User: Which sequence fits this backbone?
């Protein structure tokens, strides 16, 4: 096939996405930037106000609080869910009796739509009647007001996120199947313990998968919205469960300050970009790619 | 496999996929379709009510549809009605009639989302003199009429006389002053064997629907007559000090865990119905819930107490109103108003308010109204709404944001993480620039004609 | 050595059992709550197994007209959600396969830049797109219809394109060369030679797409206006926030009803899914 024909087919096959990317991704990003310099609610035409939205944002303590909440949440949930998902995957890798039952059990929570998840956990965490506190109480562990004590609301969502991390586990599981057993056996013959084998063979072999999951997890956790929105529509108590995406949504659709919301969106994009690039930079040094994949 | 087979097989599969896609698409379009009947003008009407309140309005809609053969009103119950209505107006697909609460009118107007009704009212001869003034005024903003009432409400103190008797109080020893209320709270609260609160006399945050209002009982205001914020006035601080005193008295953690153990409002486990809270601030609708979930409950309703040193603050009541509005961009505004005017007729209004177990916003009621109304407290609430101290939510366009700020402030006050003075000073400082820029932009737009 | 191995296996199983209990108990509680008589719902100590089973709550949650309290029409929402999911999944599978194939098998000027942009789109958070996309669909008069929710899927998505491209790269070119020599068109090669080899990978895209749509909350929250059009996720939220709240046992009944279909689907697709992810090789 000659180059021109090949290029033509290339364009033809990728055409839907060229349109999709321009219309549903690039245009909104550009428009968001433009609106972020305007006073805008869909009912009224955009009115240019320069940097006023950004100025207001930097002085807006709720903005900072929501940002802080979101970063704290990401910092808590990302390592925890990575460790749990990886541990589950390692436990389930190889021959284990009842493997498919376990697999289904651990994956099931991530199948549940967010609203039911939130409703269910609200019921589990609920004050003295919530089953979690009842169980803690019966084991003589001091109980806490998960839903109404500002110190614990974020933990409640972290627990929920770790519980729902089944698809991350699945991706790790798939990655682990690529680790050649010959390598593991060789190191076992060399006298390496289980922990050493994991540290020196398994982790390097699946490091690209870890990086991928961590990056996707980071992007996801910075956007956390639906679960806290259903549990604490106003982010109360004391806005301890008020996250970036919630404040953005409220500004856009409740307070009708769409320009302000767009400015928040632009900053969020920059934040994610910087953090992701930083992660990739770290990853570059640590991640081991098989055959340069 | 031969090439021709290749092609025909793939053509077949592609056609199958295409057909199923088209079928699904058509079906999804059908699911989103509205307005099936074409012989009449269809007026869509969105309302946030459910259950019997919705049915009471649905009965009026049915009366209207029967009363003439030109217009058909289709009533729909929407959850989260305020946001959905705003989004649908933004999308250019609004209902013809939208039910809104009075606190939302101002921001809808500032956002150019409603149609003024002055001319329609004039045409139909509807004016202020026909209403209890406060219920007419709630629909007026910046000199124009934007909405007419559907049903009004006011609030007072409900209490349980038989629980009073249990601790040796006379059943009619209800509190007349805030100080008496405090003393009763001490007397009526009980702990269980493990030191957890089992029963509480009164809790400002139960049900916690009027968190913004506590300063008003002490003569405070959030916004003064000129539209300036007076959040941290002496009276407001006093009011919120009072709110904080309950967390101090019972322990903030204990109160939180007590509150979480309470059942849903709309259930037999409702705190007042389950006799876990002895006195509660509630509105005219409370009768219905008692009647539905615990008809044998012993209850009475009295005006909310006032501070002992402020007898002028007797009979403070929060007044609210459900309103009928016509969104901008409605397809049939004239027909929509036909319906709104129909609801304002004395006969229909009384039927509606009777059905919702509330009182009428009209200045005149037929003598039978209170006899027919199953709610024995309807008249009490009606009279209370005429009090000089009746308080509607402030008419400001930034109310939603203000309220969200207020609820965070209240959190920190009830959790005792800030003193009321600190919290209110902070709120005042925080809202001030927001209000300023809000007004500036509304002004700027007016000047530019945008 | 042998003893150590047995001990290790035992330890592994103990750990797995403990973890399973931690992961599964919410589900047990979820199913048991609506089956209990009202008096046992809030009882302390908790009642795990109801003294007698009652199925009323499930019936009440599904039945929307018979009940005065105006509960949510779950069957209607279920239908809405399924149709929406099918439309989305169909679009995702077809368009992403096409696009990913284009990236994997054809060289064209600008391909690398285009692909890097594609990867970058994965980093754009949805909230950034929210306002302009809303304005766009508003200008097209699409708000209040299902179109904003499924049409974009027919134009591809960064994540799925990336996943499938990795997979297509592993398919040797010899197969398509042979068909090309036979005179098959590029599209015929794609549909008849390449796609049949990709079932596991396509299944992954389909399942993730299905779950994404089934679980989506923000999209329907913004674009669906009429309560009759709601999806299950959104309907459930309405159910929860309905005037002063719905009793927990009913909420749990409704929640179980919403979860059940996905769980069944997963049990059937489990093997295919793990295989599929393994072959797409995310790295």
Assistant:
């Amino acid at each position: 096939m000659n180059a021109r024909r090949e290029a033509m087919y290339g364009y033809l096959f990728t055409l839907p996405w060229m349109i999709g990317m321009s219309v549903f991704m690039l245009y909104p990003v550009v428009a968001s930037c433009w609106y972020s310099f305007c006073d805008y609610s869909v009912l009224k035409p955009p009115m240019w106000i320069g940097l006023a939205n950004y100025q207001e944002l930097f002085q807006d303590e709720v903005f900072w609080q929501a940002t802080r909440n979101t970063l704290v949440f990401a910092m808590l949930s990302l390592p925890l869910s990575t460790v749990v998902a990886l541990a589950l995957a390692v436990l389930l890798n190889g021959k284990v009796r009842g493997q498919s039952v376990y697999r289904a059990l651990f994956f099931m929570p991530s199948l549940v739509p967010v609203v039911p998840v939130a409703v269910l956990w609200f019921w589990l965490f609920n004050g003295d009647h919530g089953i979690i506190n009842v169980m803690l109480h019966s084991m003589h562990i001091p109980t806490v007001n998960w839903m109404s004590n500002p110190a614990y609301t974020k933990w409640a969502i972290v627990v929920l996120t770790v519980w729902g991390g089944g698809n991350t586990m699945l991706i790790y599981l798939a990655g682990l199947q690529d680790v050649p057993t010959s390598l593991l056996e060789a190191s076992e013959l060399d006298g390496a313990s289980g922990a050493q084998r994991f540290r020196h063979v398994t982790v390097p072999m699946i490091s690209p998968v870890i990086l991928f999951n961590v990056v996707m997890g980071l992007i996801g956790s910075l956007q956390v919205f639906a679960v806290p929105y259903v549990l604490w529509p106003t982010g109360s108590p004391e806005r301890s469960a008020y996250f970036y995406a919630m404040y953005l949504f409220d500004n856009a659709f409740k307070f009708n300050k769409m320009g302000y919301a767009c400015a928040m969106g632009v900053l969020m994009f920059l934040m994610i970009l910087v953090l992701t690039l930083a992660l990739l930079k770290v990853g570059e040094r640590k991640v081991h790619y098989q055959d340069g994949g | 496999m031969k090439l021709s087979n290749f092609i025909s097989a793939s053509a077949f599969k592609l056609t199958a996929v295409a057909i199923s896609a088209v079928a699904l698409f058509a079906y999804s379009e059908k699911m989103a379709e509205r307005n099936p009947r074409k012989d009449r003008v269809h007026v869509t009407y969105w309302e946030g009510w459910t259950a019997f309140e919705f049915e009471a309005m649905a009965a009026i809609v049915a009366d209207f549809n029967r009363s003439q053969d030109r217009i058909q009103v289709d009533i729909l119950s929407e959850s989260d009605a305020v946001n959905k209505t705003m989004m649908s107006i933004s999308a250019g697909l609004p209902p013809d009639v939208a039910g809104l609460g009075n606190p939302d009118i101002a921001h809808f107007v500032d956002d150019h989302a409603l149609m003024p009704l002055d001319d329609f009212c004039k045409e139909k001869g509807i004016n202020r003199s026909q209403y209890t003034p406060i219920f007419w005024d709630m629909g007026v903003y910046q000199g124009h009429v934007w909405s007419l009432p559907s049903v009004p409400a006011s609030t007072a103190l409900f209490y349980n006389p038989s629980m009073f008797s249990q601790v040796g109080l006379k059943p009619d020893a209800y509190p007349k002053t805030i100080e008496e209320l405090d003393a009763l709270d001490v007397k009526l609260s009980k702990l269980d064997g493990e030191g957890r609160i089992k029963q509480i006399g009164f809790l400002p945050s139960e049900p916690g629907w009027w968190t913004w209002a506590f300063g008003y009982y002490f003569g405070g205001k959030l916004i003064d007559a000129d539209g300036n914020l007076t959040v941290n006035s002496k009276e407001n601080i006093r009011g919120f000090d009072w709110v904080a005193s309950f967390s101090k008295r019972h322990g903030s953690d204990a109160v939180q865990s007590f509150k979480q153990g309470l059942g849903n409002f709309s259930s037999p486990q409702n705190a007042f119905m389950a006799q876990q809270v002895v006195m509660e601030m509630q509105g005219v609708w409370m009768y219905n819930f008692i009647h539905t979930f615990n008809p044998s409950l012993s209850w009475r309703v009295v005006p909310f107490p006032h501070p002992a040193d402020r007898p002028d603050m007797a009979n403070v009541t929060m007044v609210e109103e459900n309103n009928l509005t016509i969104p901008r961009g409605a397809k049939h505004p004239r027909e929509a108003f036909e319906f709104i005017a129909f609801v304002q007729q004395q006969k229909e209004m009384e039927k509606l308010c009777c059905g919702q177990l509330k009182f009428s916003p009209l200045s005149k009621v037929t003598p039978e109204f209170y006899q027919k109304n199953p709610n024995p407290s309807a008249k009490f609430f009606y009279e209370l709404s005429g009090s000089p101290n009746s308080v509607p939510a402030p008419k400001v366009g930034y109310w939603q944001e203000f309220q969200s700020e207020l609820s965070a402030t209240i959190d920190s006050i009830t959790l005792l993480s800030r003193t009321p003075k600190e919290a209110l000073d902070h709120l005042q400082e925080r809202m001030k620039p927001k209000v300023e820029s809000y007004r500036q932009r509304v002004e700027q737009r007016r000047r530019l004609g945008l | 050595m042998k003893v150590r191995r047995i001990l290790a296996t035992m330890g592994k199983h103990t750990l797995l059992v403990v973890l399973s209990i931690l992961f599964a108990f919410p589900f047990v509680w979820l199913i048991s709550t609506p089956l209990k008589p009202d008096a046992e719902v809030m009882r302390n100590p908790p009642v795990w197994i109801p003294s007698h089973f009652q199925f009323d709550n499930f019936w009440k949650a599904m039945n929307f007209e018979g009940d005065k309290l105006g509960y949510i029409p779950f069957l209607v929402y279920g239908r809405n959600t399924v149709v929406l999911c099918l439309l989305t999944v169909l679009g995702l599978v077809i368009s992403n396969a096409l696009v990913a194939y284009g990236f994997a098998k054809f060289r064209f000027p600008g391909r690398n830049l285009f692909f890097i942009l594609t990867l970058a789109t994965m980093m754009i958070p949805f909230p950034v797109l929210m306002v302009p996309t809303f304005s766009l669909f508003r200008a097209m008069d699409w708000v209040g219809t299902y179109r904003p929710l499924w049409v974009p899927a027919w134009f591809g998505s960064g994540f799925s394109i990336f996943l499938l491209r990795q997979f297509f790269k592993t398919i040797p070119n010899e197969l398509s060369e042979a068909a090309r020599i036979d005179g098959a068109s590029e599209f015929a090669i794609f549909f008849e030679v390449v796609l049949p080899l990709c079932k596991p990978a396509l299944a992954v895209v389909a399942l993730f797409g299905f779950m994404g749509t089934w679980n989506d909350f923000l999209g329907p929250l913004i674009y669906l206006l009429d309560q009759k059009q709601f999806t299950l996720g959104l309907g459930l939220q309405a159910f929860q926030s309905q005037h002063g709240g719905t009793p927990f046992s009913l909420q749990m009944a409704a929640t179980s009803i919403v979860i059940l279909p996905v769980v069944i689907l997963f049990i059937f697709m489990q093997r295919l899914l793990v295989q599929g992810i393994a072959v797409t090789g995310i790295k």
